[in-house]
């Protein structure tokens, strides 16, 4: 599902209210792609800020612009090239990094004027390119770095990357070839970063990686079979909301759910199921056990009845028959997932699925996508309608003259729904966690009235 342009989580520009001192070199940043890439952008900006660079919120005020690209899908590549072209037109001095940077000839073929191209998470190379284009000029008496570093998200929530890379070999995905095998961060480093964020006022930690449930399984001498369990428990003790993204449905995920029932971790699982028919999953090189998946969902709900399950699916994968697609719709009816996104399959340069036979015509993909989303929308509307009259906790994201935009524990920022308060909101501020009573429901959003702060 494509979000409206003004709600895209994958397009971020640094907008920091600071005054440029005389002679200070200034860098702009355009960040495309997933939240993991956003974390990379924050790390780059933090390093640059520590070296005395100013961060410009627009092209005109920047001595050079970094474009952090996405290269997962052909449509994302096209968007990245468009962003590079826009930066070249508006500023003229552009450094490219990120996933598309793994194909430098592709970038320079379209935009030969870029100053440098680096690949994903190559922080030192990016800094070298910035130093060459815009030499640093730090002032140790003036240039101070916030304790959380430079953030591209609102102050009250932050993405927390716990690992890089992935050990899976899904035929439609090229992430392992771009970002390598799983490399988990030490738990102490993750907790130290999370602690600093919470101390600085962050109220929600969004845990991300390519495969969150696999965290720590790459360690030779790991203390537990599933280190994500102890990490989630420790994060939950910091006092902020903890939301888990990209959780692969291994059997031991059921050990995470009691932490949600206890209130240590938000009752929210973001699980990329992708499909339900065993033959389609087999062609995708995904585990072909949809029945067991339904059993696990039932088990999770038995442990934590309020758990919200989000997932994404692909329709029109090569070889997908009408029967296979109907199986997916039937599975969706049975699974009753709370939040669902869907993508029409498209070839990705370098993906093994490109070579599969029986590619599905575009018009069939489109028709199946609409049928899928219609079914998912009906499920969402029914689930939200059942919340009318309930009292729930929400976190405030934004307050303006018309009301407060909030999220429930079932809603991740930008990708899920919202809860709106349009009366008695004047004393609220972003980051507040308050209790509301739901009095209206739509297909994806809720409306409520403030009960208590």
Automatic annotation (TrEMBL):
According to the record, cofactor stoichiometry and binding are noted as:
Binds 2 [4Fe-4S] clusters. One cluster is coordinated with 3 cysteines and an exchangeable S-adenosyl-L-methionine.
Annotated SUPFAM superfamilies: Radical SAM enzymes (SSF102114)
> Which Gene3D superfamilies does the record match to this protein?
Methylthiotransferase, N-terminal domain (3.40.50.12160), Nucleic acid-binding proteins (2.40.50.140), tm_1862 like domain (3.80.30.20)
Q: Where in the cell is it found?
A: Cytoplasm
User: Which is an annotated GO molecular function term of this record?
Assistant: protein methylthiotransferase activity
Name the domain of life this protein comes from: Bacteria
Query: What name does the UniProt record give this protein?
Result: Ribosomal protein uS12 methylthiotransferase RimO
MTTase N-terminal domain: which residues? Answer: 25-135
Q: Which reaction does it catalyse?
A: L-aspartate(89)-[ribosomal protein uS12]-hydrogen + (sulfur carrier)-SH + AH2 + 2 S-adenosyl-L-methionine = 3-methylsulfanyl-L-aspartate(89)-[ribosomal protein uS12]-hydrogen + (sulfur carrier)-H + 5'-deoxyadenosine + L-methionine + A + S-adenosyl-L-homocysteine + 2 H(+)
What task does this protein carry out? Catalyzes the methylthiolation of an aspartic acid residue of ribosomal protein uS12.
**Domain Radical SAM core span(s) in chain numbering:** 152-382
Enzyme Commission number(s) of this protein: 2.8.4.4
Recite the UniProt keywords alphabetically.
4Fe-4S, Cytoplasm, Iron, Iron-sulfur, Metal-binding, Ribonucleoprotein, Ribosomal protein, S-adenosyl-L-methionine, Transferase
User: Which residues does [4Fe-4S] cluster 1 bind?
Assistant: 34, 70, 99
Annotated InterPro entries: Elp3/MiaA/NifB-like_rSAM, Methylthiotransferase, Methylthiotransferase_N, Methylthiotransferase_N_sf, NA-bd_OB-fold, Ribosomal_uS12_MeSTrfase_RimO, rSAM, rSAM_horseshoe
User: Where does the TRAM domain start and stop, copy by copy?
Assistant: 385-452
Under PANTHER family, the record lists: RIBOSOMAL PROTEIN S12 METHYLTHIOTRANSFERASE RIMO, RIBOSOMAL PROTEIN US12 METHYLTHIOTRANSFERASE RIMO
A Pfam family (short name) is Radical_SAM
Q: Which SMART domains does the entry mention?
A: Elp3
Identify which cofactors the protein needs according to its UniProt entry.
[4Fe-4S] cluster
Q: Which family does it belong to?
A: Belongs to the methylthiotransferase family. RimO subfamily.
Question: Can you name a GO cellular component term?
Answer: ribosome
Q: Which GO terms describe its biological process?
A: tRNA modification
Q: Where does [4Fe-4S] cluster 2 bind?
A: 166, 170, 173
């Amino acid at each position: 599902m494509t979000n409206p342009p003004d709600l895209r989580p994958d397009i971020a520009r640094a907008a920091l209210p600071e005054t440029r001192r005389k002679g200070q070199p200034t860098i702009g940043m355009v960040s495309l792609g997933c939240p993991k890439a956003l974390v990379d952008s924050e790390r780059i900006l933090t390093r640059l800020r520590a070296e005395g660079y100013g961060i410009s919120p627009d092209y005109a005020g920047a001595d050079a612009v970094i474009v952090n690209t996405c290269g997962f899908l052909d449509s994302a590549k096209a968007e990245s090239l468009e962003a590079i072209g826009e930066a070249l037109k508006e500023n003229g001095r552009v450094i490219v990094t990120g996933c598309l940077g793994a194909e430098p000839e592709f970038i320079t073929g379209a935009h030969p004027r870029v100053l440098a191209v680096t690949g994903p998470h190559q922080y030192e190379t990016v800094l070298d390119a910035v130093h060459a284009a815009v030499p640093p000029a730090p002032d140790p008496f003036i240039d101070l770095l916030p304790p959380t570093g430079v953030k591209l998200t609102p102050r009250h929530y932050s993405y927390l990357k716990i690992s890089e890379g992935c050990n899976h070999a899904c035929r439609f995905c090229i992430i392992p070839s771009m970002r390598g095998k799983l490399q988990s961060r030490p738990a102490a480093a993750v907790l130290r970063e999370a602690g600093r964020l919470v101390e600085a006022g962050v109220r929600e930690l969004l845990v991300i990686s390519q495969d969150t449930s696999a965290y720590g399984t790459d360690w030779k001498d790991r203390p537990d079979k599933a280190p994500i369990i102890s990490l989630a428990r420790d994060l939950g003790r910091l006092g902020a909301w903890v939301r888990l993204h990209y959780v692969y449905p291994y059997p031991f995920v059921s050990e995470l759910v009691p932490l949600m029932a206890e209130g240590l971790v938000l009752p929210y699982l973001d699980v990329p199921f992708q499909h339900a028919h065993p033959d389609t999953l087999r062609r995708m090189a995904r585990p072909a056990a949809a029945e067991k998946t339904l059993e696990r969902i039932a088990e999770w709900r038995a442990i934590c009845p309020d758990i919200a399950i989000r997932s994404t699916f692909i329709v029109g994968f090569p070889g997908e028959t009408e029967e296979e697609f109907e199986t997916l719709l039937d599975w969706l009816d049975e699974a009753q997932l709370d939040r669902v996104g869907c993508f029409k399959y498209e070839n990705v340069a370098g993906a093994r699925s490109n070579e599969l036979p029986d590619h599905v015509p575009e018009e069939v993909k489109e028709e199946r996508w609409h049928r899928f989303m219609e079914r998912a929308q009906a499920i969402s509307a029914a689930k939200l309608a059942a919340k009318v009259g309930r009292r729930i906790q929400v976190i405030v994201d934004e307050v303006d003259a018309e009301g407060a935009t909030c999220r429930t524990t079932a809603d991740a920022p930008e990708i899920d729904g919202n809860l709106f308060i349009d009366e008695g909101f004047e004393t609220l501020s972003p980051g507040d966690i308050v209790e509301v009573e739901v009095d209206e429901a739509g297909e994806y959003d809720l409306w409520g009235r403030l009960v208590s702060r």
